[in-house]
Here is the input.
Amino acid sequence: MKAKKTYLTICILLIVALAVFLVYKYKHLLFGNKNEEITTIEEVIPKAVFPLKKGSSGSYVKKIQEWINKQADIVFVGPLFAVPGIPLVTDGIWGSKTDAALKYISENSVTINVPRSEIDETFYKLYIKPNRLL
Here is the structure.
């Protein structure tokens, strides 16, 4: 009789341990992952920063500047910046050089309609965040 109780206790402990393990392993499916792909406070409240335009600053503008440099290096040939061959400074501040570079890309893009003076949330998510070429 004592062996039967011991066996039953071990089985119950194994079942509880398995249940705890499964809940821990698959908690993101059970409870959702609220922290998924949130890296900055700006991404938590994107409505507060869009549309981005001259005078804007922050990590979104820095990402736009990196995207502009990528477009200029790979797609466009010509005097995109004040000194050809020198990339736009990625300082996260949308000044006159960032504005001029976006206007240049807008005027010379044949594949998509690039905004001329401001970036809205839709364009940012489709092209800039994934760093897509035109």
Summary: The chain has six helices and two strands.
